[in-house]
Amino acid sequence: MEKLKIKSIFLREEVETIHIRHLYYQIDWSDRLVGILGARGTGKTTLLLQRLKLNFPDDDAALYISLDDIYFASNSLIALVENFRLRGGKILFMDEVHKYNGWAREIKNIYDTYKDIYIVFTGSSVIDIYQQEADLSRRTVFYELTGLSFREYLRFADVYAAETIGLSDILDHHTQIALKLSKAFKPILHFEAYLDHGYYPFFKENLRTYFLRIEQVIRLIVETELRFVDGFDINNSNKVMQLLAILAENVPFKPNISKLSDKIGISRQTVTQYLHYLEKARLINLLNAAGASISTLQKPEKVYLENPNLHRAIASGEANQGSRRESFLLNQLRNAKHEVSLPATGDFLVDRRITIEVGGKAKGRKQIEGVENAFIAADDLEVGVENKIPLWLFGFLY
Hints:
- This protein is of the alpha/beta class and about 400 residues long.
- It folds into two domains: about 1-145, P-loop containing nucleotide triphosphate hydrolases (Rossmann fold), CATH 3.40.50.300; about 150-395, no CATH class.
- Helices cover about 40% and strands about 15% of the residues.
- Helix 4 (about 105-115) links the parallel strand 3 (about 90-95) and strand 4 (about 120-125).
- Helix 10 crosses helix 11 (about 270-280).
- The radius of gyration is 22 Å and the shape is globular.
- This is ATP-binding protein.
- One of its GO terms (molecular function) is DNA binding.
């Protein structure tokens, strides 16, 4: 256990606390069991270490551990907690819980047995808590850590610090808001940089290796994280990578499951399942018609890459600007917890009442003519009027 303490102290001292994610302030840290789920690369470990450093800088009552540490090859989590508690320990920050066999059952037992122990844990977004053998879902308060919004990117890049802006405010007052913000920074310039390399917080570390890091993240998700999905065959990892590469060349598009099945050599049902697995892993977004039921056996209407940075990282050719625009808007809306589906007219139906068409600054209103509550999200536009809104402004939703 002493080695774990030394690692915890070292990591605590090394982490920077200048840039802190918006989610940090939304978490109620007073709950006894907090779960933070998210895709690899979004900064879950940093969030835990920042909490440790800011609130327990010299306190033996708090400890950070990663459950893929070699320590747990010969030691149980429960035994560690008992030892930690006897020495005055109160708060455990557990990283990568899905890497530990039986993690849900042991955390449940710790929670039920030791009322004076507080746990904050992180896990992969592919984990289905409700499938775990222990009923952890009703004991845990869950949060999801997504990639950076455009607003957060501006703050992390030391360009501009702003508060979030609600969707209704953007729709109703976008001209005044855009005028104010565009006086503080050049939105088009920085928005283009964000679409290229601003979604993952590690852009701060080294831009030259940013896309190499994304490729590594993708491979780790497919080869390591997806094995925690019930029903996923790890032997098909290469086929999933092949599927992802095909999607990257064509998104957004309406998938032909039969053609995809023939191309990568797996059954149509398996292709459909793997599309849903890739969505759980936050590598793609699937869009269905409003009111349609969603299951792993249902073919999606359209497929998008989960965020615009993936276009350059995965696609072999030049990233399509139209694809990046739509990928961005769908990503920001869903990360801000808005319901998005496929409308009869337009690109996105938001919260079942707002239609949004995406395009360049010259985009006309023809496609949404006669549609109620319809707006255009226009790229390369600094300030909009009436129902034509700058696309970049939707990056302030979270």
